[in-house]
């Protein structure tokens, strides 16, 4: 049984900053399989929220619902106080400029160079035309992730860590207000994982983003988390900061810290 | 409660419904503003120019072999002078369009299926969507339209080279001037041969592009599915071509040759 005394999900408090994402009773099923059974979550402005959970519990599905890659079946999902259900394609486009998504694999376009990968969202989402302006923005964000030298390389020439950094740069180039990270350190060695985690923290401070970070990597969670929520069987079962959860009594939650 | 497992017929109907939905998406996005000219030109180059040598050699060999195989029999009946006409009619009406479309199914449809399948697996299509780009408009519309335009042009080029191949073969044993050969070949042709054959290649182009895009875009997540998408794209596109050919021949015989 879950310990409900210290780790139970806290009700939203008025003293906290404004929520940029609010989720209430969110449900999502694929065919007969219910993946999200009752998701309740707030992401507050400026915070890093880490979501922990075993594989297949619905963590990625939750953030894909936030960015509109999947649509939820019932419940409410508000981003910047706007219910995303029924948004038009143009409204989604406008919203996605403010909500960045870093994919697990980096998801760089194989047929484009690093520069073309980074200019793609600028020419699409922001409709920029001035080549000098685009180049300057690409160089600025690449410098931020320490990979300015890779500007002319193809994704196939990059290591896993470099791909993640470039993927992060491509997401940050639109200067989003919310960042969603889908297992940013999966498949990386411990040193590179730490570098990516520190980069996430650095970028969060630089761009003042609010972030949801899906991870199994406790080192990443320790570095980045202001608050942690634990997901099990399609709903959140515990919430707290790193130390509270590590010293809690619930077996499921403690198992992540072993 | 015991849930009924969908029968193979139900699965086929669901798949057919999916294809109709995908086709509707293609037509709807083809007429939207913001046509992706650069990607369309890039795809036209890849599909057209990069298939040039394969299709050209196939066309030449087609005419060459057809002439070598038919010449002895035609001569035995005292109809050796009709070989250029026979090669021209058979290549332009039927053999050229079908063989070139099948070659394109193997080269282009599989390549599109594998490319889009790989983009799906590595979340590049999702990344495109969150970057403010409509992936159907960018990836699917451009590829299908490039196939619709380039495959008829490739077939015309192959038909011309088949006549050159026929001329080369007829000069192995006999001497025939180019003027005589081509005047005999073209004298047998009418617009009723050329136009239905050309229209047929437009439908073949659509089949090659559509099937490749559908199989790739709807592949499952997993590396194995990329191979499955490429393979099933070739098989389905070939089947589409053969069925479309049967329908077009029937329609042509009713409307054009009567």
Give structural notes:
The complex is a heterodimer of chains A (258) and B (258). With 258 residues, chain A is an alpha/beta fold. Chain A contains 9 helices and 10 strands. Chain A has helices at residues 59-67, 89-98, 114-124, 131-144, 160-172, 190-207, 218-224, 242-246, 251-255; strands at residues 19-30, 33-44, 48-53, 74-79, 82-83, 99-102, 178-182, 210-214, 227-232, 235-240. In chain A, strands 6-7-8-3-9-10 form a 6-stranded mixed β-sheet, sandwiched between helices. A 4-stranded antiparallel β-sheet of chain A has the order 2-1-4-5, with helices on one face. In chain A, a hairpin with a 2-residue loop joins strand 1 and strand 2. Residues 1-8 of chain A have low confidence and may be disordered. With 258 residues, chain B is mostly helical. The N and C termini of chain B lie far apart (61 Å).
SSE topology:
The complex is a heterodimer of chains A (258) and B (258).
Chain A: E1 19-30, E2 33-44, E3 48-53, H1 59-67, E4 74-79, E5 82-83, H2 89-98, E6 99-102, H3 114-124, H4 131-144, H5 160-172, E7 178-182, H6 190-207, E8 210-214, H7 218-224, E9 227-232, E10 235-240, H8 242-246, H9 251-255
Helix pairs in contact in A: 3-4, 3-5, 4-5, 5-6, 6-7
Chain B: H1 8-30, H2 37-48, H3 52-76, H4 83-121, H5 124-130, H6 135-173, H7 178-187, H8 191-217, H9 223-255
Helix pairs in contact in B: 1-6, 2-6, 3-4, 3-6, 4-6, 4-7, 4-8, 4-9, 6-8, 8-9
């Amino acid at each position: 049984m879950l310990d409900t005394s210290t780790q139970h999900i806290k009700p939203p408090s008025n003293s906290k900053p404004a929520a940029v994402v609010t989720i209430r009773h969110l449900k999502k099923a694929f065919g007969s399989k219910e993946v999200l059974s009752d998701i309740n979550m707030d992401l507050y402005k400026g915070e890093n929220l880490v979501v922990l959970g075993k594989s297949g519990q619905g963590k990625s599905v939750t953030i894909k619902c936030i960015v509109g890659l999947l649509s939820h079946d019932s419940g409410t999902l508000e981003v910047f106080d706007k219910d995303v259900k029924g948004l038009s394609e143009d409204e989604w486009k406008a919203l996605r400029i403010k909500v960045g998504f870093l994919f697990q694999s980096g998801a760089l376009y194989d047929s484009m160079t690093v520069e073309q990968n980074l200019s793609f969202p600028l020419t699409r989402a922001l409709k920029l035309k001035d080549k000098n302006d685009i180049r300057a923005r690409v160089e600025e964000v690449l410098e931020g992730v320490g990979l300015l030298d890779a500007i002319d390389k193809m994704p196939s020439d990059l290591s896993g860590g470099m791909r993640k950094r470039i993927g992060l740069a491509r997401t940050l180039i639109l200067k989003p207000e919310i960042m969603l990270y889908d297992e940013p350190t999966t498949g990386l060695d411990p040193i590179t994982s730490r570098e990516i985690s520190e980069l996430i923290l650095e970028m969060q401070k630089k761009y003042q983003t609010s972030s949801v970070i899906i991870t199994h990597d406790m080192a990443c969670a320790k570095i980045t988390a202001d608050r942690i929520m634990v997901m099990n069987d399609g709903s959140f079962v515990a919430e707290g900061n790193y130390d509270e959860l590590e010293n809690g009594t619930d077996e499921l939650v403690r198992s992540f810290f072993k | 409660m015991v849930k009924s497992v969908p029968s193979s017929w139900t699965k086929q109907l669901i798949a057919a419904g999916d294809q109709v939905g995908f086709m509707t998406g293609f037509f709807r996005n083809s007429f939207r503003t913001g046509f992706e000219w650069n990607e369309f030109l890039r795809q036209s180059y890849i599909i057209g120019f990069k298939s040039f040598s394969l299709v050209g050699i196939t066309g030449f060999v087609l005419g060459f072999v057809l002439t070598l195989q038919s010449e002895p029999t035609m001569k035995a009946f005292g109809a050796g002078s009709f070989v250029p006409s026979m090669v021209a009619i058979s290549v332009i009406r039927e053999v050229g369009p079908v063989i070139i479309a099948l070659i394109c199914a193997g080269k282009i449809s599989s390549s599109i299926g594998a490319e889009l399948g790989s983009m799906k697996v590595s979340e590049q299509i999702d990344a495109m969507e969150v970057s403010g780009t409509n992936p159907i408009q960018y990836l699917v519309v451009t590829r299908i339209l490039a196939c619709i335009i380039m495959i008829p042009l490739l077939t015309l080029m192959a038909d011309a080279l088949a006549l050159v191949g026929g001329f080369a073969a007829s000069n192995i044993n006999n001497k025939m001037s180019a003027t005589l050969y081509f005047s005999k070949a073209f004298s047998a042709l009418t617009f009723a041969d050329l136009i239905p054959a050309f229209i047929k290649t437009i439908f073949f182009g659509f089949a090659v592009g559509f099937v490749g895009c559908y199989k790739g875009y709807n592949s499952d997540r997993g590396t194995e599915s990329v191979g499955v998408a490429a393979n099933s794209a070739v098989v389905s596109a070939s089947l589409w071509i053969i069925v479309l050919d049967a329908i077009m021949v029937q329609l042509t015989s009713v409307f054009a040759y009567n």
